[in-house]
Write a structure and sequence with these properties.
By secondary structure, this protein is α/β, with parallel strands linked by helices. It contains eight helices and 15 strands. The strands form three sheets. Strands 3, 4, 5, 6, 7, 14 and 15 form a seven-stranded mixed sheet that branches. The structure holds NADP nicotinamide-adenine-dinucleotide phosphate.
């Protein structure tokens, strides 16, 4: 049997493009005991993966070089099994190589439990998945979000950002979101943000001051750069910053820029805390319980852009980096 896989073909010359990848046909190896054959049904794409292309190994995975097959979280269906734990037809979430059919060890799979079977497959890659778990860990554990907080989320209409916004609203906080287009501002309004702005409409600090005239208590940052500087100005005394990501700085190498106004941390007694979601597995049970109950109560929903066809992965990834997604960028590999 053959499968399709997406390999990195070349390093991007600045901006990542679809032609930096190629799609190959490869044979599927034989199954051994304890393994299953899986078919990729939905693949979630992560902006942070671009940071590993030509870069060093990180906690999220090894550096990615030409010839390598990237991996990100996907929903898979078991099609053949030599495992006691899984039978054909079972669904699971897996950190999946960008390969249409693959062999997986049973220990790599996180079963999608039966009570959630009615939940759309995409939700296992958004609010219930890796982006949701990242947002929950950053917002709850490191941000310590409270109902009385005014929270600012950058990259708010993205995969992690749209979860962060909804979780902060679910605990009753006042939430401001920034994003990169008028259409995504409308999405943020629909998600219940108290104010939302397009960061292309002016200087980040002016836009933030207009949205939050009395300042903010907590900044959940996905983007870095100018928006981090603006937030440091707008944070009230004792305010907190959670550094989740810095999408505006990826691919910039030695041109990366930190905040020039970080001395505000001294005068305003601010806390700036970075985190890596992979070190927080002890929070998963609490995350699943809270998010499932918010979903049942209709307080949150899966926000995603669905792109059709396994062969569209390179285009979808380049589009994600250019801001072409609302919510999580997901490839529907069934179509
Ligand atoms: N700490 C962790 O453990 C952890 C885990 C997972 C992800 N992350 C990080 O979380 C962040 C969000 O990840 P994601 O996968 O959900 O991606 P995403 O937010 O869906 O996509 C990236 C978004 O960043 C925005 N962006 C890109 N360049 C920008 C720029 N120059 N200025 C302002 N905004 C820019 C774009 O949104 P707009 O069009 O709205 O501007 C783009 O859609 C990333 O930084 C990622 O590295 C961290």
């Amino acid at each position: 049997m053959d499968a399709h896989e997406v390999q990195l073909a070349s390093y991007p010359g600045g901006v990542m493009e679809a032609r930096n990848f190629r799609v190959n046909t490869v044979p599927v190896p034989e199954l051994s005991d304890g393994q299953v054959m899986v078919r990729l049904r939905r693949l979630g794409l992560n902006a942070g993966l671009a940071n590993r292309i030509g870069g060093p190994d990180t906690a999220y995975g090894p550096g990615i070089n030409p010839g390598d097959v990237p991996a990100s979280d996907g929903v898979v269906e078991i099609v053949e099994s030599r495992s006691e734990a899984f039978k054909p037809g079972d669904l699971a979430v897996r950190k999946s190589p960008w390969r249409s059919i693959d062999i997986a060890a049973e220990g790599e799979l996180r079963r999608i439990p039966a009570p959630e079977a009615g939940v759309a497959l995409e939700a296992h890659l958004t609010v219930l998945g890796h982006t949701g778990f990242t947002a929950y860990t950053g917002m709850m554990r490191f941000g310590g979000v409270r109902a009385e907080d005014t929270v600012y989320v950058s990259g708010a209409a993205g995969g992690v950002g749209s979860c962060a916004v909804q979780f902060a609203k679910a605990v009753g906080a006042t939430v401001i979101g920034s994003t990169g287009s008028a259409q995504k501002v409308r999405l943020l309004n629909a998600l219940g943000t108290d104010a939302a702005f397009n960061h292309h409409d002016g200087a980040a600090l002016d836009l933030l001051r207009e949205a939050a005239p009395d300042g903010i208590d907590l900044f959940y940052d996905n983007v870095g750069g100018e928006q981090l500087e603006a937030a440091l100005e707008a944070l009230r005394f004792g305010g907190r910053v959670v550094v989740c990501g810095a999408a505006s700085q990826y691919g910039k190498g030695s041109e990366r820029r930190g905040p020039s106004n970080y001395l505000r941390m001294i005068y305003q007694q601010l806390t700036l805390r970075g985190f890596d979601v992979t070190s927080n597995e002890d929070l998963r049970q609490e995350f699943e319980t809270d998010v499932a109950s918010w979903l049942r109560a209709g307080k949150i929903r899966s926000v995603h852009t669905l792109v059709g066809g396994f062969g569209q992965i390179p285009e979808a990834f380049a589009s994600l980096l250019a801001g072409g997604n609302s919510g999580r960028m997901i490839v529907d590999c069934d179509s």
